[in-house]
Each structure stands twice: as structure tokens, then as C-alpha cells.
User: What shape does this take?
Amino acid sequence: MHFNDEVDWPEVFGEHISRPSLADPRNPRRSVYAATMVFLEGGLQEIDDQLSGRSRRSRDELAGARLTRTVVVRRAAALAADLPCAVSVGEGAFKDRWPSHGGMANFFMCLIKYTCTAPRWGLFLDYGPRRALAELPRVRAGELELTDLITKIATHDLRMRTRLARYWLFQLSLTIDAKWRSVATKAYREMLDAYSTRWVPVYEEGLRLLGVRLRPGITARMLSSMVSAQTSGFAQHIAGTGDDTRENRDLFVASVQALIYAALDPGDERAITDALRRILGEGPG
Assistant: This one.
């Protein structure tokens, strides 16, 4: 199991953990830091299992208490058994990090922060931009249709963003504490902003390769934010309603394509599809 040591965990967790040293990867007692991460990873994996239907608990039990301290401690103990060093993850260790009065609410806040920086979401954030940059030269060479590239990446991003939205919708339903909900929403928005920022150089490179420009008043950052917001809206809808049908996904892909095309300036009063067809038909210059 690998933890993200690059994050300044004491600063990230702030007031939500009893002592900053308990979440410091530089703590000389590595097991102290590892125990904190195991509690968070255990909570994250439990949520993943409940959402995917892999949880062994009955639906009646989940409806009454989806994520309790007992459940987290149990999951953490199973994870700790596979670690190379001895780590104490009993109920006492949990209460030491998140004291009983308001402890679970603080644990949820830390769990949100942990989710934001988990490596699995880093892979999600990097996939679309990396794939687009790799495939854009093929689009310019006429080997790949731009619509096909948009379809592949948009479909993948919608699936991942829906899964991410389910995490947040699920976790937000665990408490009605307004302060906790505000922290969770802020963390969620920070992650989506990071996702949008990754796309800016991709749009800039696409404009350069395809020899087109954006309409006056629109920038690559603005277009990236608009597509991200579009994706977020569809993902929240699917996560909240379960309406993950082929028709809904196709509608989403069409809306993203229309948004991107509408932001491009074809010039000479031509339709953007005609302009792109002419540009791509010329092949590499």
C-alpha cells in the first residue's frame, strides 16, 4: 500500500485531527502516520464497496449506519495486517486521532481531503489530457476523426466523474453538519478546478495543430471550465438519479462536441465542421 507523502498532511487536515504529528509522513515513528492513512484508506474502500454492491453488510444495516467508527476500525485492521510494519489501528487509536466528541464528523472531513489527493484520482485527472495530446497528431494527419476522439475521452471522463460524484453525494449524506458539508464541497470544487487546469494546454495545442482559433472573448481556460462544468452537471445528474443509459451518455457527448465547436471561430462565415474538414483535408503542411 502506497501513501501520498508529497502532501503536507498536517496542513491539509488542519483542525480536523487531534495532533498534526499523527498525519505527518516525516514523523520518526512511521507507524503513527501509517495508522492515520490506514484509517482513511479503510473508509475509502468501504465506501467503494458499498457503492459497487460488494459490501457484505445487509441493505438494512447500511440504511441505518453506512459508515460508522466500528466499520472503519474493522476495515483498517484488515488493511494493517498486510503492512510490513506493525500498526495500531484499534478503536483507541481512532479516538486518539478523532476524539469522540465530533470525532466522526472530523474523520469525514479528513476522508474528503484524502480522497482529493488519492493516487487513483490522479490517474483519472491525467488520463483525458494525456490521451488527447497523444491522439491530436493523428487527427491532424487525418487518421482519426476529431468527433471520435471527443467521444472516447468524453465518455471516459463522464464515467469517472460520475463515480467521483457518487463519492461526494454518498459522503455528504452521512451528516447534516453544515460546516462539514461546506468543507466537502470546497474540496470537491478544488479537485474539479485542478481537472480543468490540466486541459488548458491541451486545448492550446489542439488550436495550434488544427490551425483554428477561438471566437473573440473565449480563451482556452474558459473553454476548459465550460466543458468541465458540463461534465460535472451530467455526472451529478447520473449519480443522483442512476439514469446511466446509452441515450443519456450519447446526449452528453453530443453536448460536449457542440460546446467545443461553438467556441471555435471558423472564419469567412463558414460552419465549423466545413472549416475543419477543409483544414484536415489538406493534411500536414
Notes: Strands lie at 213-214, 264-265. Residues 9-113 form one domain. The CA atoms of residues 59 and 66 lie 9 Å apart.
